[in-house]
Amino acid sequence: MKDTRSLDADRRFEHAFAMHSDGRHAEAFALYETILASDPHHAPALHFSGLLLHQAGKTDDAIARIERSLAIDDRPADVWSNAALLYMAAGRADDAMRALEAALKREPTLGEAWLNLASLRLESDDPIGAEAAARRALSCGESPQAWFNLALALSAQGRALEALSALDRVEAGGAVAHDDAAVPGRRAQLLIALGRRDDARGVLDRALMHVDHPALRIERARLAEGRNDCAAALADYRAALAASTNAAANDETVLSELVFLKKRVADWKGLQELQSRFRDGVLSHANRSDDASALTPFSFLSDPSTRAEQRIAGEAWSRRWSAAASQPMREPKRLSEGRLRIGYLSADLHEHATGVLTVGLFEQHDRAAFEVFAYSTGPDDQSALRRRIVAAFDHFVDARGWSSDRLADAIRADGIDILVDLKGHTERAPTATMAARPAPIQVSYLGYPATMGASFIDYLIGDAIVTPLAHRDDYSETLVQLPGSYQINDDRRVIGATPDRKALGLPDEAFVYCCFNNVYKIGTSVFDAWMRILRDVPRGVLWLLTRADDDFTRNNLRREAMARGIDPARLVFADARPHTEYLALYRHADLLLDTWPYNAHTTASDALWVGCPVLTTIGDTFAGRVAASLLSAVGMLELIATGRERYIAMAVEIAFDRAGSRALRERLLASVRSSTLFDTAMTTRAIEAAYRAMADQYRSGKREPISIS
């Protein structure tokens, strides 16, 4: 039997709750406080006063009260459900899921709780769990949001047709989360996944007739990019940026897309202003550990930026996976007693620059000391290189379409000791898998020439030129320095038959400057320098590489040349082609003119392999120091200019010194095959020595820079 004080508290609580229900919140809260002053263990007063504190913006205080309420009486399902909502508001997803599970254990028919649980499981990359929760929500009563969550869960599992059927039920039921873009946007993505790109465009066109939503324009712009309609893509990105109002999401996403596309197609009008806006956005995330950025750090590498700024960009971007990264690594934590198990994680294990560079490494690993695994998240292009890569591994896991959790679990089950991320912050990167910490030691190598700024990456492999120890403060990872150049190269690269010079559009007597880098690396500063070189070398031509159908980019570059007083006909364009044929182009090139602030990387080693000299400058960032590293490794230090003016002067001098130019090429051809840059076995042994050093440091419990001699 309750005592008189408890009965009085209960009567006053009924009165306070009635005021609460009538919207008289201040009076209700005052009475809740009076009740708690006399009875601090009154669970309902703690619960409902906590809800009012949350409404007043005092979420931490609210959580504390509801937790006290549950500590006194953990039976009411609605208290657990409300606790989950508060945890969600505080960004505590794991606590929210546990609270929802507790609520549903007590009352399995709470449809709203199942719905919230489905949303949280989607956010935590658990589509199977999200599907189960969404179906339970539907069993409690159909709603558009439940069908939409089911569609998202099915979509994340690659079940596109089922997801489309779920979206049909959404549209039959009404709006979803007050977002007119959510359903058509997801429908378009599913249609794209099914190869129905024209249908996807129709969905987006119809939706945009009713609501001019930035997310829909971004999706339509990406479709336009895919069909190489860059003018349409740029128009949609510009409109999306103008319509965007959410700086934390749409604004940063579309700014990233617009800046990178403009660089990719040499549309430089207004670019500098957008780049400044991008840089200001990056810097706004400095010293803020509570927010993530949608500004893509990869795009920043080809903008004027410092190492410190690139670290800020990487850290802010990596916080997108902070929840997964904050979880303790699951067992086992001990390293293998016998052979170290090395896992390579990439979406580029096919006819791609990464595949071209690394295949020899995979083949030449010491199988007595290392067991080598591949986790491929990209396509199988059926190429000879793909077949060679697959054959090079002890274990090749084709993980296309896998969720990050499934992939992380597979890596753990395989007992990987050292997991090497070959992607970094690039397109289709499996960063969420790395953030789940599936391996004791995690490494960034080759694919991303900067710091990832991620707590879940332990080491970055570089060398004394690209990552000197004096720069260590600008890297979140512990630096590893390989001897010579950090860049592994395949000494079995095959060069195709030499094509006809005239058929390529190259004049017989011209001095051929080339740059087969991606166009996004060619900024106005670089192009200004190149046009000055062509002005001073009347018989010179500049040979660039684009897709055969990319007239938009080619015309932009011709227009920029004309604006600088250079005949556009002196720009010669080569079509993209298979790798062996592309390599053969360098036999007609006299000098590769490098770019800054993002150098030629694989492109530079390709040129050197064929015997084409590379002229570069050395920058301040990893991306701007790679060509200097490569030239050092082939013994051609004289081709590293000390600055832009010297770079221009050297390019002109080499063109006028025909004998010197030939001698330069002959010396390169005579030494390149025996250089450390193309000694695949030597670089493989150095990388293996680095892996052993990492393992030793892990076992000793300390981590410090590693230099391999």
Provide an overview of this structure.
The chain is of the alpha/beta class. The model has no long low-confidence stretch (mean pLDDT 93). An eight-stranded parallel beta sheet has the order 3-2-1-4-5-6-7-14, with helices on one face. It has a six-stranded parallel beta sheet with strand order 10-9-8-11-12-13, sandwiched between helices. The protein is built from 31 helices and 14 strands. The relative contact order is 0.06. The protein starts with a helix and ends with a strand. Helix 8 (127-139) runs antiparallel to helix 9, helix 10 (160-173) packs antiparallel against helix 11 and helix 24 runs parallel beside helix 29.
What is the average of the pLDDT values?
Answer: 93
Number of helices: 31
Strand percentage lies at 5-15%
Give the number of DSSP strands. 14
Please give the radius of gyration in angstroms. Answer: 30 Å
Q: What would you call the shape?
A: elongated
Cα(first) to Cα(last) distance is 81 Å
What is the helix fraction of residues, given as a range? 40-55%
Strand order of the largest sheet: 3-2-1-4-5-6-7-14
Helix- and strand-based class?
alpha/beta
Describe the largest sheet. 8 strands, parallel
Q: Uncertain regions: pLDDT < 50 for 5+ in a row? A: none
Offer a few descriptive terms:
alpha/beta, 6-stranded parallel β-sheet
Q: Would you spell out the secondary-structure blueprint of this structure?
A:
Elements (H helix, E strand, L loop, with lengths): L3 H18 L3 H14 L4 H13 L3 H14 L4 H13 L3 H14 L4 H13 L3 H13 L4 H13 L3 H14 L8 H12 L3 H14 L3 H13 L3 H14 L3 H18 L6 H13 L13 H5 L5 H12 L3 H4 L14 E7 L6 H12 L5 E7 L7 H9 L2 E4 L5 H10 L4 E4 L9 H5 L5 E4 L14 E5 L14 E5 L28 E5 L8 H13 L3 E7 L4 H13 L7 E5 L3 H7 L5 E3 L8 H9 L3 E4 L8 H8 L6 E2 L2 H13 L1 H14 L8 H21 L5 E2 L2
Parallel strand pairs: 1-2, 1-4, 2-3, 4-5, 5-6, 6-7, 7-14, 8-9, 8-11, 9-10, 11-12, 12-13
Helix pairs in contact: 1-2, 2-3, 3-4, 4-5, 5-6, 6-7, 7-8, 7-9, 8-9, 9-10, 10-11, 11-12, 12-13, 13-14, 14-15, 15-16, 20-21, 24-29
